[in-house]
Automatic annotation (TrEMBL), chain A:
Transmembrane segments: none annotated. One of its GO terms (cellular component) is cytoplasm. CDD domains: TRAPPC2_sedlin (cd14825). PANTHER family: TRAFFICKING PROTEIN PARTICLE COMPLEX SUBUNIT 2. This is Trafficking protein particle complex subunit 2/Sedlin. It comes from Aspergillus ibericus CBS 121593. GO terms for biological process: endoplasmic reticulum to Golgi vesicle-mediated transport.
TrEMBL record, chain B:
Residues 1-46 are annotated as: Disordered. It holds the Pfam family TRAPP. Keywords: Endoplasmic reticulum, ER-Golgi transport, Golgi apparatus, Transport. This is Trafficking protein particle complex subunit. One of its GO terms (cellular component) is TRAPPII protein complex. Part of the multisubunit TRAPP (transport protein particle) complex. It comes from the Eukaryota. GO terms for biological process: endoplasmic reticulum to Golgi vesicle-mediated transport.
From TrEMBL, chain C:
Keywords: Endoplasmic reticulum, ER-Golgi transport, Golgi apparatus, Transport. The keyword Phosphoprotein does not apply. The lineage of its organism: Eukaryota, Fungi, Dikarya, Ascomycota, Pezizomycotina. SMART domains: Sybindin. GO terms for cellular component: endoplasmic reticulum; Golgi apparatus; TRAPP complex. GO terms for biological process: endoplasmic reticulum to Golgi vesicle-mediated transport. This is Trafficking protein particle complex subunit. Part of the multisubunit transport protein particle (TRAPP) complex. It comes from Aspergillus ibericus CBS 121593.
Amino acid sequence: MSYYFTILSPTDVPLFNIAFGTSKSGGDGIARFRFPDTAQYMNQFIIHSSLDVVEEAQWMNGNMYLKHIDTYPPASAYISAFLTPSGARFLLLHQPPQLPSNSAGAGGSMSGSLLLGSGGSSSRASASSVAANPTSPQTEEAVRQFMTEVYENYVKTVMSPFYRQGMEIKSSVFRGRVTAAGRKWL
Amino acid sequence: MTQPARHAAMLSISNSGPNTMAGEKQQSTQHMHTQSQPSQGLRVPSNRKTIYDRHLNRSRSAELSRASFAFLFAEMVTYAQRRVTGIQDLERRLNEQGYPLGLRLLDLLYYRTMSSSTSSSLSSSSTSASPPNRPLRILPLLHLIHGPLWRLLFNRPADALEHSVSPETPNEYMITDNDPLVNTYISVPKEMSMLNCAAFVAGIIEGVCDGCGFEAKVTAHNQPTEMWPGRTIFLLRFGESVMEREKVLERAGVK
Amino acid sequence: MAVFSLIIINKAGGLVYQREFQPGLRKLSTNDYLVLAGTFHGVHAITRSITPKLPLAAIPNPPITPTTATTPSPNIASPSSTSTPTPSSSSASAGGYTYPNPGVPATGLESLETDKFRLTCFQTLTGTKFLLFTEPTMANIDVVMKKIYELYADFVMKNPFYQLEMPVRCEAFDRNLQGWLRGRA
């Protein structure tokens, strides 16, 4: 599983982003997106296009963790969202690894059709590991734990007297903490 | 690799340490060159303890000296008074000093409620049980301010919460504090009798409302009684967009 | 047990506060209160300066050298003797004397009494003077004085609208002072 995590201010200004891969079931923590050439901007594009869904869901559901809210089938990208009470959005894009049967150059339409139905997950290696199934309760729970841990560090950032709302988070310590949370839960 | 450096970094991000991480901002004008971060001169204290190493609940039950707060607040009022054009201007400045505090307190408040609620939340995969909900309607928001926020700030709930009785102003709500802590030692001169330094607290409330997505203007007004000479009413005026959303959510049955 | 009135004099001798709590004294005109404040300030300064100092030799157990801090002699506490690095010659002229109560500077006039009232003076470290007019028989004036000082520190000094050395116009100070004295009576 490869991940792209971003924090957006209430006015949609990107405050922080990071790409990383799973560290579970032997993963090395390195992001391997399906379409490496375009991943850099496609990930951002996909994540930002899910903002409309977030804004709709945020007034229907008072939870901070909104769970999996959006899917972009062509890239088999799943978006999970977490809202802080002060309106910052934590968005996590997760992309399951390509099936072993798929060759490296598989077309987008093919992988998309595979994943459109949720039954597609059964064909994948056992859904027990967090990394394998992006919509399983285990994954939801792992993402929740990850989000909660990032939230704690985000609150610490916000409480800094040198931080104002809407400022980019540049702290390398914060980045390290997010990486560690990713390694721990995802 | 023949690819540009930042692409390479994007593709193979090692998690060995924060230095090797790279990220890109969406807006091309604002690139985040995180790889150059160590050279940005972020200084870490010699004992390696950053704000991220401190627990947020550490000072939770700590008490603050009332006198030092009083002196600090007196200096804040004096600072705000420099080159003001009038009482309204002074109140606006106090309000602006409180506003960022409200935004921060909101996150801290939720973090603390989250971590204090029993940590058995691990078992429940449905998150509805454990963490507190964000307020979606005006009433839960007002209860949040009246209760938890006031307790966080002043160690007691506010004294009253009312809705405007006038049909013309359904967007007005009032929170009463009989003896605001910030005004304990303050005597406003007669020529400024309209001034209420609790405008600072009004700013905090405004920050909380705005943070939650409820655009509002909050002002502090003197309403002395025989028993409570310092009684202050915080008047919350919610914006039209909030009132419209309130109607939609009411129809949708959102609580 | 009546507290008649309170006067506060700033460190320059100006009247910054005058208030009557119970009738019993004849009222003065505002101008006379100002004169009273200034006069008292002057008399107080004179009483301070005529307070005699005692030569160091008069104190039993004089230290061998004034700089040795090992001997727990009371005059070590007086700043003049500890701060002089050269022991013998200069301490005889500058630090060779001390106040009757070593370590405590001369306070000057502390009370005046007639058969109708007693005036008690308390001076803060910053030179502000509180004059309290009470019945001559009243006991525990220091308790009242301490509370007045506390209320002053709270409701005057913590008030952002109070300018130092200027007349005290703090409604909360008046209210709390009145309330506390009434509660006592």
